[in-house]
Amino acid sequence: FDPRHYLGTHCHGFPKTGPHRLRFLLESVKDLRETLKKKGSTLVVRKGKPEDVVCDLITQLGSVSAVVFHEEVREIL
C-alpha cells in the first residue's frame, strides 16, 4: 500500500480513498491472501513507497529472478 494513494487530491484536498473504499480494498486483499493460501501460495503485503519497498523485499528474499509491476494511469487536467 503506497501511502501517497491515501492523501488528498491535488486540486481540492479531498481524500483519494475514503473509509468505505479502504475497507473494500483491505477485505479484497485479505480474501486474495486466503484464496492463495488455500492453493499453496501466499501474498506479500507491504506499506510504503513502492520504489523503497520493492528494493527492500528483493534484498530480503535474495533469489528474485523477475519483478513485474504496473503503472497507475494519472488524470490529465
Automatic annotation (TrEMBL):
GO biological process: photoreactive repair
Keywords for this protein: Chromophore
One Pfam match: DNA_photolyase
Protein's organism: Erpornis zantholeuca
Superkingdom in the source lineage: Eukaryota
InterPro entries: Crypto/Photolyase_N_sf, Cryptochrome/DNA_photolyase_1, DNA_photolyase_N, Rossmann-like_a/b/a_fold
Name by which UniProt lists this protein: CRYD protein
A GO MF label: deoxyribodipyrimidine photo-lyase activity
Residue ranges occupied by any Photolyase/cryptochrome alpha/beta domain in the UniProt entry: 1-77
Keyword rRNA processing included in the entry's annotation: no
PROSITE patterns linked to this entry: PHR_CRY_ALPHA_BETA (PS51645)
Signal peptide: none
